[in-house]
Design brief:
The complex is a heterodimer.
Chain A: H1 2-25, H2 29-54, H3 63-80, H4 84-106, H5 111-131, H6 133-136, E1 142-143, H7 159-182, H8 184-194, H9 196-201, H10 206-232, E2 234-235, H11 237-240, H12 243-256, H13 263-282, H14 289-304, H15 309-321, H16 324-334
Antiparallel strand pairs in A: 1-2
Chain B: H1 2-33, H2 40-58, H3 62-88, H4 93-115, E1 130-133, E2 136-139, H5 140-162, H6 164-174, H7 176-181, H8 186-208, H9 218-232, H10 238-258, H11 264-278
Antiparallel strand pairs in B: 1-2
Helix pairs in contact in B: 1-5, 1-8, 1-9, 1-10, 2-3, 2-8, 2-9, 3-8, 5-6, 5-8, 6-8, 9-10, 9-11, 10-11
Amino acid sequence: MSGKFSRKTLWLSVLFALMLLLPQFVTSRFYMDIVIRVLLFSFIGVAWNLMGGYAKQLSLGHAAYFGLGAYTSTMLQINYGISPWIGMIAGGGVAMLASLPIGALCFRLRGPYFTISTIAMAQVLMLLFLKFRDFAWGAEGTTIPNLGDAPWMMQFEEKAAYFYIALALLVVGLVVTWAVERSWMGYYLVALGEDEDAAQAIGVNVPKMKRHIYLISTFLTALAGTFYIQYIYFIDPPTAFSFNISVEAALVSIVGGIGTLWGPVVGTVLLEVTSTLLQSWLGGGHGGVQLTVYSLILMAVILWRPAGLLGLITDVYHRIFGNKQQSEQEAALDG
Amino acid sequence: MLVTVAQALINGLLIGGIYALVSIGVTLIFGVVKVVNFAQGEIVMAGMYTSYFCATLLGIDPLVSLLISMPALFIVGVCLQHFLIRRVLKLGDMPQIFLTFALSLLLTNVALLLFKADYRTIQTSYSDTAIHIGPVYIAVAKLIAFGVAMLLSALLWVFLRTTDLGKAMRASAQNPEVSMLMGINPDLVFAVAVGLALALAGAAGSLLMPFYPAYPMVGQVFILMAFVAVVLGTLGNVTGALIASLMMGVAESLGIQFVGADSGLIVVFVMFLVTLIIRPNGLFGGKRR
C-alpha cells in the first residue's frame, strides 16, 4: 500500500512539475490559449462534479453561478475600482448566497425535474441581467478597461500568468474534491447519490448534505466566472450565463468519469483536443461541428461506457503494464 | 384596456395550443416510459424544417405537409425508443437524462451545419389574413394551428381512453410490472408512446411554419415552455399538460403586453417558481414525487 502510494505521488509530482514548466515550452499564444481553456473547463467540470458526480444532483444550471461570479467581480471593479482578486472571492460569496434559495426550490424536485428547474433558474438570471439595463449594462454588456500589465487588477501581458491562475484554480478544485472524497461528507454524498431515501433512512441528513455540497460547488464555479471574464475582457449576459457553460461542465465530467477525482480533467482534455483537431482539419466557419462531435461522444459514452473514459484508460494502462491486483486497488482509490 | 387584455388573451391561448402539443408529448413519454425527452423541442424544429422544405421545394402547404411530418416523426420516435431509450431504461438518472439531452444537442448542431443559423419563413395564402371581431383581431394561421392542435389532442385522448393499445399504454403507465403480467408487450407500448409524442411535436412544427420562423435553436423556446407546463400540469398527466400549456401561453402573452416585449419568459418562469413553492407536484398532483 505504502509503496503504491509513493508511486502515485511521484507520478503526480512529475505531472505537476511539467505543468509548472509548460509555459517555457509552449510559446505560441494559440496553443497557450487552448491549454488555458482546458484548465478552466477542467476546473468548471471539477466544481460541477462535486455535486453532479458524487451526489448525483445533475444540474444543467451552473452557468447561473459562473455568471454571478463574473458579474460580481466586474461590477465591483468597474463601479468601485475593487480588484478582481477580491471580487473573485466576493463573487464566490454571492454565488453561495444565491445557491441557498435556488437550492431550496430546486431540491424539492428530483431526477430530471431537478435538472429542468436548474436550467430554468439559470435562464431567469440571464433574463434578469438582460432586462435590467441600469443595473448591469443590459444586453450590450461592457468591456473591461484594459490597464496593460496590472497584476493587482488581474490583467497581464503574458498568457503564462493566466495559465498559472487557471492551474491554481484547478489544483484548488482537485484538492477540495480529494478532501471531500475522503471525508464523511464524501461517503454521505455517494450514499445519497445512490439512493436518497435509503440514505435518509440510515441517518444521512440528505437536505443538509445537498445544501453543503451545492455551496462548495457554486463557490468554485463563480471563481471560474470571474477568471473567464478577466481573461476575455468582455461581459454580457449571454456570455456570462451561457447555457454552453452549464452543458460543458456536465459533459466533461460525464465523458471523463462522473464521480471520480480526475474524470472531469480527462474529459476536458479529450474533448478539447478533439475539437482543436477538428478545427484545424476543417478550418473555421463550420458552426455546429464542435457540439455535433461532443454530442456524439456523449451518446457513445452513455451507451457503451457510462462510467466514463477514465476507467477505460486505466484498464488499458494496466492491460499493457500488467499487475491486475494493483489496477483494482487503484480503481477503488479513484472511486 | 379591455381590448388589449382580450387581444393578449386570444393570442396567448392560440400559441398555448402549440405549446400543448409539445408538452403533451413530453408528459406522454414520461408517463409511459418514465424518461424525460430533452430533445422534444428539436423534434418541433425537425417538423418545421420538414414543412419548410415541402413548401419551398415541392410547393406543399404546411397544413398538408402535416401528413408527411407526423408519420415521418412517428417512425423516428419508434426508432428512438427501440435503438436508444430502450438501452438506458434500466440505468439511473444520468444516462436517461443525458442520452436525450445529447440527442437534443446533436439535432440542433446538425441543423446548424446543414441549414446555417438563418431564419426561414414561408408565405402562405393565409399567413397575413386575420378575422376581425370588433376591435379584436384573430390571425387565421394561428387560429388554424390552434384548431388542429386541439383536434389532435382530442384524438390522442380518445385513443388513450377507447382503443386497446391506448388502454394498454395507460395500464403500463400506472404499473409496468403488472401490465406486463397481463400480457402487455412493453416494447410495443413504449415504442408507440414515443412515436405518438414525436408525431405531435412534428405536428406542432408544421402548424407553426406559416407564422413562425424556423432556425436551428428554435426548439429551446418550446422545450422550456413544455418543461414548465409538464411540471405545472403534474408529471405524466396529459389533460394537466394541456391546461397548463394554455395557461402559460396566456401568461406569456399578458407578460409581453404588460411587462415588456422581452418579459414573456420571465412571467412564465415566475409562475413556475411560485408553483414549485406552493405546489411542488403541480396543479393537478396528489402524492409527492
